[in-house]
Amino acid sequence: MLELGCGAGDPCSKKLAERHDVLGVDLSRRQVELARANVPQARFEKADMTALDLPEATFDGVVAFYSILHVPRAEQPALIAEIARWLKPDGLFPA
Prior knowledge:
This is Methyltransferase domain-containing protein. With 95 residues, the protein is α/β, with parallel strands linked by helices.
């Protein structure tokens, strides 16, 4: 599972990590540090979600709770296309 805009990892990453391999991404170095402390069983990266270079068909699901709203509207279609590329066939991206 990929969480875009994971923040401090609680509650979403923590709950996801109970059942899935989780990669959380956040733009804030401090939030990533907190997430690593709060959810040690998940992986976290400091990165801009619009600049991620992830392999195709990697994730069973992608979640982004309110984080895409912070991406400029003109950049959102390209991000959604990348999310679709990162998803495995039949992967989930709840909207």
